[in-house]
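Page 42, continued from yesterday. The earlier attempt failed because a stray header line got pasted into the input along with the sequence. Redoing it now with the clean sequence only.
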Amino acid sequence: MADAAPTGSWTREQRTVLAVACVSSFITPFMGSALNLAVPAIGRDLGLSAVALNWVVGAYLVAAAAFLLPAGRLGDVLGRKRVFLWGVGSHAAVALLAGLATSGWVLVALRALQGAAAAFIFATAPAILTAAFPITQRGRVLGLATASVYLGLSAGPVLGGLLTHYLGWRSIFVAVALLSVGLVVAVVAAIPDEWRGEQVGLDLGGAVLYVLALSAVIGGVSALREGAWGPWVVVVGAVLLVVFVLRERVVPSPTLKLRLFGDPAFAFSNLAALIHYSATFAVSFLLSLYLQSVRGLDARAAGLVLLVQPILMAALSPAAGRLSDRMEPRLVASVGMALSMGALVAFAFLGATSSAWLIGLGLGLLGVGFGLFSSPNTNAVLSAVPRADLGLGAAALGTARMVGQALSMSLVALFFHGFLGHSSLAAADTGALATAMRTAFWLFAGLCAIGIAASLARSPIDRRDD
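This time it went through. Structure tokens are written below.
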């Protein structure tokens, strides 16, 4: 597809690409945040234990992270629009099946399949959007797509609560399936072009090895608190990852082009994303527990308080994206991470009688920080790879994000195990709970400090179109 005309004269196809990218960016966070509110209803309806309910969310994250890299490479070789349609169509079909599930473990298996389908969306949508617009406008359109992610996070608890209350939790899956079908229709009807990179073979053996390795690492880390088998699964996954890297160095058409990490802008931007999500993903979970278990708010009131963060993120992401078109993305993203660190330091001082202003200050800083970090960092990653490898670049960034999210929750689980033992949250001492959270916030703030250094270490991007 030809490069874009100047701002204000986008073609119909470019506007459709942007709309499709925004809707696809909305769907998956909307489903995740809506299901978080529906988890108790799912547990009652299907008779699931707390561990099984955790895997309703965890199975999706593990599968999505494991399939991102192969999906991105597949899009670069076979065509990103084609692979995107596979992902959206599969996502719709599996969502409908999940809405009909009558067994808890069937639902967990379907959530894993849905995560795999979502990986094909995550890996191709940003690449299609980036290919459709010139480098001088990438920050702007990526900012709009990022804002859609945060709108999904904001709308999920509200709309998910209404759907669950009036129509039952299964209606969330039906709603997502209908949105996905609408995306398929829009792409087929209004986007005639295809985007692909090199016409080369696929390293299917490497892709399978990678999926097994990353599934073992993330699944094992997520299960560290559940038994002695978790660490062994992590070790097996780590060994498989080493074998995968050695293989990628010698095969003619690798799943992962290791040479991309020789570019400091690409390598440090992905490292910054990994660290930032490791330090911030669990914050909403921790604050939800703090507001309900320590401060005594009900779930609805706690949800309304936490809305401050995603609303600010959605409001600022487009402006941050446009700003990264005018100045170095690494500078904008680094300021964002510094503000996130400030929020985490503020949260580290929370206690049973802390002022509401301290909570509001922290949420405000985190919302602004995330808004300034996400779209400029995405711009930096996708501007650092050749046009032929945009799917691989988007997949690498998505993998860093997913792995960071899993690490964030695993660190919290380890802190809770250390401070609370085997006590249920209902029976836990609120003082010990607050201490565990404050310790986690200090660790996360330290991670952000390292992330700022990684963010500033990357090289400037080349603004010449490929």
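Notes: Residues 122 and 398 are 7 Å apart (CA to CA).
Reminder to self: strip header lines before submitting.
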